[in-house]
Fold:
Amino acid sequence: MRSALLLLLLAFAASAQTPSQAAKTQPSLGFSPANMDRTANPCADFYQYTCGAWLAKNPIPSDQSHWGVADELEERNRTILRNILDRAAVNDPKRSPDDQKIGDFYYSCLDEAGIEKLGTQPLKADLDRINALTAKPALPAEIARLHSIGANVLFTFSSGPDLKDSTMNMADIDQGGLGLPDRDYYLKDDAPTTAIRREYVAHVQKMLELLGEPAAKAAADSQAVLRFETALAKASLDRVSRRDPDKTYHKLPLADFTALAPDFDWSAYFKALNTPQFSGLNVDVPDFFKALNATLSQTSLDDLKTYLRWHLIHGEAALLPKAFVDEDFRFYGRTLTGAEQLEPRWKRCVSAVDADLGFALGRKFVDQTFGTEGKARTLSMVQQIEKALADEIHALSWMTPATKEQALIKLRAVLNKIGYPDKPRDYSTVKIVRGEAVGNDERATEFEVRRQLNKIGKPVDRSEWLMTPQTVNAYYYPPENSINFPAGILQPPFFDNKMDPPVNYGAVGAIIGHELTHGFDDEGRKFGPQGNLMDWWTPEDAREFERRANCFVQEYSAMLAVDNVHINGQLTLGENTADNGGMRLAFLALMDSLNSHPAASIDGFTPEQRFFLAFGQSWCTNVRPEAARLRAQTDPHSPPKDRVNGVVQNMPEFEKAFSCRVGQPEVRMPSCRVW
Structure:
């Protein structure tokens, strides 16, 4: 079971017999001068200059909320995954255990006729348990059951590294329970937010009607859901505050935690969830649980049961009959993101397998796309960019020797993970039954919930990955001090072995530098070399860092995300710091490389110009206004245009490469820089 907002891709729509035929071969991707708008002035709007022709030629498909070069790569990867799943879904007794699981999961997802025939029957046992609740003391056990299948009710409970002893996993409990994408959707009173709340209430009402409630009762119940979730939202920590690890680390003895919400039977909850024994846990937001105690006491049992029913069907809407799917898409797709229609069914089913059994699917993907050579080439570039950061730290004028020494120790300890995990994930205990779409999803989710809970009290496995190999993304993970680059993104347009070094450094090199810089942004800098939350800064260096970081806050806060909505410079600070630092490191590494292997101009562009053009083209993206508005409120990344222009404005190297002058828009004075 998953959030419909995060995985709209699962709202099914097409017919399913045996797996669908192979999709068309995707066109080749990568950097090209043909993507440029040469009528634009690079010193006035570099994003338009480097991406203008691409933006004009690539309107957003009707089933998407945005469309960019990364989405093109995702489409290509998805087609590869589809072909893998088409073969695995053939009901052959000689299939390997993993092929049986991913194949039958995919087949069941495609089986629209079977899903329509079953209706809501797959949820009957869960609904019956909720409806049978006669007193609030029975709630904890039912909450545990719903959590085990992934329902986002009340709060979240799992495991995670102890941020002050990152070698060990501990229990972790956090705020949760909302159906809208952020707490502010419940709290703000501007016209667009108020309109979305009205649409949300109407959506909840319609979903409850589809479940069988009379219209009048469903209307009243949807208001009850909004009231309850608004109370949870008021107690929730905002997104900007949650970026500060000091504000979400509160290690408490179990008895002290249970005293925060004494009216909830935590023993019954943990027993029903069958958690390992533990004596303490991290409570991300203690005030949330104090408020939760009061909110549960003040809310009637009938309203709580309605709330649980809503989140049950909300989480599984994508696997229910078409009426649920369409209504789910109407709100979470069309209203929130502006998408005009559902993606084709096969795409959503590929994404469903990826979400539930992604590492089994990923092994097949890696065999076809990556290999050891790609891993070695990427590692070499990572090492060059790490060297550039070491050189920069040595040369920093604003940092004292004591803090420099600690920064270099942390840099040397960075763990590089490239391509795919060394150890396969064992899905042998997951039962996948052909024809049971909801059941397969629930069992796969139960497996993952159990896998996470079993980590409590055990050493952290630093070889584990948080993203599947086929993911078009990358990440820095503070508790490991690791940078992670899945095979899915190490392909054109981000990395292309046929391209000259300036292009690869401008695209994937900037991504590598970005993730590395995250270890030293406003959040990452609070973690030490082994991933422990610690202060390794002198007070004067910390103050200087914050002063320099505030330059980014002011720069990006002045930019418009859409209409009259500004970028939240505090929310996006970490990503903006990483964008700027990553580009500088990639440029320095390229210059070092060119010292021994000079590059010529190509297509009339110098190596330095091609570096910046490749960076800009890696972010070419069209975005619907609804999606832009949603992202401005919830996404810690700045919009694509501002990620490009915001960076080049701060780089004298860009100014020199394109002969820009002080006073032009892409020359910021004074420029912002941390690393």
